[in-house]
Amino acid sequence: MFENLTAGPLPSLNALRAFEAMARTGRATLAAQELYVTHSAVSRQVKALEQTLGVRLFTGPKHRLELTAAGQALLPALTGAFDEIAAAVRRVRSDGEDLHLAVNASLSVKWLIPRLPAFAGAHPEVRLHLAELAPQATAHRGAQAVVRIVPAGRLAEPLVTGFMPNHIGPVLAPHLAERHAADPLLAPRLAAQSHPQGWAIWAAVAGVELPPAPERPFAHLHFAMDAALAGLGVAVMPWPLVADYIAAGRLAAPFGFRKAESAFAILAAPGAETRALTRFRNWLVAEGAKTPAPPGPG
């Protein structure tokens, strides 16, 4: 019935989705999480797509894949097409009152979710759906917007709205700070694998050379933060995530906080604007403005 609609057979939709997700997130495992399949299924679909097209889409070792010229040409068209499909489905399903967001796990757990009752109370008509945003991703399939820390240079982009500046500093439990009063940086160093440059960035902005210290790795910032609360070591944290804990005396910040070249922001997907998204963005900006100024170095 449809054999004459195209000049040739289109590739499998599943294969195109697998490639787009893998190319956008940079890893088969992250694409698999987004698509709710196994990473081997993603890899098989991408290989099948390469065979159908007769070109390589990725090059390099598995742990550091890069797009070929063909992959770079294909990705933006697919991302735009899938975004438009997702936006159309949302409009038909919800008349604009469902709001789908993707948020970095640590920001969601330690800052956003504790504040969501206030948003729900002010906007009961908005049905909020939260998904986890991969650590380095700036988009998520099906999400109208993502919430994460971005480089300060991105704040000028039309779809990016900053809602809090970012200040970072080392934090540790008060009893551990007393034990290492001579130099808190000699305490075990808690490192978040989702933000591997955290310590190096703080050392650079603080003008500090980090002394040798045992390192304890954790998958996420909020894991490292909970480890700091438990007295396992010292962790570099963004001020908004720890402000309440420092005010309550559960964490100490012996070096204060330094302004980083980044900010907390909401990034809207192209064509995703709805009443619900506008209301959430305005609430987010107002909520971020309530964050007290961090203690400076001293």
UniProtKB/TrEMBL annotation:
InterPro entries: LysR-type_TF_proteobact-type, LysR_HTH_N, LysR_subst-bd, WH-like_DNA-bd_sf, WH_DNA-bd_sf
GO biological process: DNA-templated transcription
Keyword list, A-Z: DNA-binding, Transcription, Transcription regulation
MF terms (GO), sorted A to Z: DNA-binding transcription factor activity; sequence-specific DNA binding
The UniProt record lists the keyword Disulfide bond: no
Source taxon at top rank: Bacteria
The keyword Nuclease is annotated on this UniProt entry: no
Domain HTH lysR-type, first and last residues per copy: 11-68
One Pfam match: LysR_substrate
Family, per entry: Belongs to the LysR transcriptional regulatory family.
Protein's name in the database: LysR family transcriptional regulator
Species: Phenylobacterium hankyongense
